[in-house]
């Protein structure tokens, strides 16, 4: 029964990751814990497998591939590896309720920030003067980037990936849009590169920590999620940037609320 449930849930999660370039980990962890009866610490490790494989599958779409900035994504991911290793080593020693509680807080904060960004973009696009205003460049030049902020953000993203078992897309996408000035569609595609690399490094860092992974449930979930990811990528072509941002924010706030109720209810 658990395998069948993993199959259907994984398919839905994959579509979400493919469409938004994020969301796999934030959905996988609570699903593994509360629907598939996995231990919270095991769930964070299992989620890394699911997120990494789903990110790779989501990049297979030709249209999605064309949106990826591999250089920026690879640099961001390589910097984040240090944080991923540290987070993976610390996570097993944190009490399960604290782990899930802090996970809820993180999701809520990022959800609120992204909601404000999406709403602001929506208002600007629907403004009667929108067509008269100069449009910002899709990305900033390397000389304009704040490398201190980028390194700090990448390290923090890696730590969160290793600590919570999430792909980091819900942090990477805002950073790529707000700090590097990428368009939402480009940021969501590029974040898949970051997710794949940081998930792999976080998983390797967990070797020897004593966490038991249910490989049957995990690989079934991952296989279904990978299939869903292939279908989710083309969906971004049918949506406006602010719509993706707002959908992302609603997803984060919804998962934060549901997880908080299950954890402390």
UniProtKB/TrEMBL annotation:
Keywords: Cell membrane, Membrane, Transmembrane, Transmembrane helix
InterPro entries xrefs: TM_pro_TauE-like, TSUP/Inactive_protease-like
This protein's record includes keyword Cell wall biogenesis/degradation: no
Predominant subcellular localization, coarse grouping: membrane
A Gene Ontology term for the protein's cellular component: plasma membrane
Compartments (UniProt record): Cell membrane; Membrane
Entry-linked Pfam families: TauE
Membrane topology classification: Multi-pass membrane protein
Transmembrane segments: 7-36, 42-61, 73-92, 98-119, 150-176, 182-204, 216-235, 241-261
Family of the protein in this entry: Belongs to the 4-toluene sulfonate uptake permease (TSUP) (TC 2.A.102) family.
The protein's name in its UniProt record: Probable membrane transporter protein
Provenance organism: Corynebacterium uterequi
């Amino acid at each position: 029964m658990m395998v069948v449930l993993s199959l259907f849930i994984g398919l839905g999660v994959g579509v979400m990751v493919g469409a938004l370039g994020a969301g796999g980990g934030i959905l996988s962890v609570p699903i593994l814990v509360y629907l598939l009866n996995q231990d919270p610490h095991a769930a964070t490790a299992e989620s890394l497998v699911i997120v990494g494989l789903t990110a790779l599958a989501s990049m297979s779409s030709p249209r999605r591939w064309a949106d990826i900035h591999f250089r920026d994504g690879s640099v961001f991911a390589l910097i984040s590896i240090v944080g991923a290793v540290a987070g993976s080593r610390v996570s097993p020693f944190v009490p399960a309720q604290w782990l899930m509680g802090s996970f809820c807080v993180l999701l809520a904060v990022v959800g609120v920030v992204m909601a404000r960004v999406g709403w602001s973009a929506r208002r600007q696009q629907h403004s009667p003067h929108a067509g008269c205003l100069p449009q910002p460049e899709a990305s900033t030049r390397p000389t304009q980037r704040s490398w201190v902020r980028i390194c700090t953000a990448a390290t923090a993203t890696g730590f969160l990936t290793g600590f919570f078992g999430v792909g980091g897309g819900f942090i990477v996408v805002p950073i790529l849009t707000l700090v590097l000035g990428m368009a939402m569609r480009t940021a969501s595609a590029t974040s898949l590169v970051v997710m794949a690399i940081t998930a792999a490094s976080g998983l390797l860092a967990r070797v020897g920590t004593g966490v038991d992974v249910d490989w049957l449930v995990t690989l079934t979930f991952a296989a279904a999620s990978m299939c869903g990811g292939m279908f989710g990528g083309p969906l971004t072509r049918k949506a406006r940037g602010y719509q993706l941002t707002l959908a992302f924010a609603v997803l984060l706030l919804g998962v934060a609320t549901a997880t908080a109720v299950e954890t402390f209810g």
